[in-house]
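Below is a filled-in request sheet from our internal design queue. Each sheet records the structural input a requester submitted and the sequence that came back. We keep these sheets so that new team members can see what a complete request looks like end to end.

REQUESTER: design group, bay 2
PRIORITY: normal
MODE: inverse folding
CHAIN LENGTH: 331
BACKBONE (tokenized):
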């Protein structure tokens, strides 16, 4: 058994959504290959018998399992799946002795470690494992599906390609060498400043107070992360956000290189009114380009839905469609 660190886990129900009486819940931990112990909430259908299909869920980027990912996990457990919603390395209740940092490599490993964990549960069928990635973790889910053949079905919801938005800016407005050079200079100056200070400067979470002229998608983020609807004390987005220098690895990386070689099923879900919808459209187009495996790939656009509608609006999130998709491909 891999060495794990002892985590201080909250046993009280401190989610931003109500607890369901249709399933059982408990806290679990498991280690990834970088030696970091991850914390997760496990949701199991009531009175479940035999081995179950299982789903690992994470996201949005900078959120915690007490927010959207937990809602998704609990809902899918009500529909007959054993699920876990986990905090990524260095965030939430998970381990890692530098906080509020990220790495595409480590984040993909986090998803793979979740699959490791699910694969050895007595009540899980290891041949029937899927993943769900929300927002920035939708991108990490696609990247994981490209490397981990144990994942039989992948759902991305309101996906962000974090490498693209970091390197190119929103809507690719800064997709040029000069803009990226300025960002590299600023980030590396910050590294020096952090080293001198012996601490990491924070990027700041969702803007607060909210300017009247803020773009609609910023107002949408505020309405989720900064109000009782979605605020959580451990959420980076609800509070001081990532370390400023956490952007470096994403600036120097591009996701999705081999996603058009994914053989297993993928469902890409996005609101057609979301500012981020172009990322899912482009990721889907790349995934099926020159691919031999397109029959089990689908892009589903939700009419009128914004980016954050798919965080928690159960009347808009297509859970029934997700259930049918996982039933089909985790058979």
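RETURNED SEQUENCE:
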């Amino acid at each position: 058994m891999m060495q794990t660190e002892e985590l201080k886990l909250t046993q009280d129900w401190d989610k931003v959504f109500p607890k369901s009486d249709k399933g059982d819940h408990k806290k679990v931990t498991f280690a990834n290959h970088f030696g970091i112990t991850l914390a997760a909430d496990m949701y199991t259908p009531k009175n479940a018998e035999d081995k179950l299909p299982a789903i690992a869920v994470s996201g949005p980027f900078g959120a915690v399992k007490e927010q959207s990912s937990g809602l998704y996990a609990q809902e899918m457990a009500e529909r007959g799946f054993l699920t876990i919603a986990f905090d990524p390395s260095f965030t939430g209740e998970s381990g890692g002795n530098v906080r509020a940092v990220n790495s595409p490599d480590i984040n993909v490993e986090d998803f793979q470690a979740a699959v490791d964990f699910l694969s050895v549960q007595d009540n899980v069928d290891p041949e029937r494992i899927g993943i769900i990635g929300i927002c920035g973790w939708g991108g990490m889910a696609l990247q994981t599906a490209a490397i981990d053949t144990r994942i039989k079905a992948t759902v991305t919801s309101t996906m962000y390609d974090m490498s693209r938005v970091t390197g190119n800016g929103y809507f690719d407005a800064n997709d040029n060498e000069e803009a990226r050079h300025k960002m590299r200079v600023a980030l590396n100056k910050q590294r020096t400043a952090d080293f001198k200070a012996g601490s990491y400067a924070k990027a700041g979470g969702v803007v607060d107070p909210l300017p009247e002229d803020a773009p609609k998608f910023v107002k949408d983020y505020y309405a989720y992360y900064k109000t009782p609807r979605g605020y959580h004390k451990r959420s980076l987005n609800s509070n001081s956000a990532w370390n400023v220098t956490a952007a470096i690895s994403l600036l120097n990386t591009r996701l999705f290189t081999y996603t058009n070689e994914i053989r297993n099923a993928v469902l890409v879900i996005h609101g057609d009114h979301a500012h981020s919808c172009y990322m899912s459209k482009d990721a889907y187009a790349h995934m099926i380009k020159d691919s031999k495996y397109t029959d089990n790939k689908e892009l589903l656009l939700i009419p009128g839905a914004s980016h954050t509608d798919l965080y928690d609006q159960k009347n808009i999130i297509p859970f029934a469609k997700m259930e049918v998709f996982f039933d089909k491909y985790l058979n």
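SHEET NOTES:
- The first helix runs from residue 68 to 78.
- Residues 9 and 93 are 6 Å apart (CA to CA).
FILED BY: M.R.
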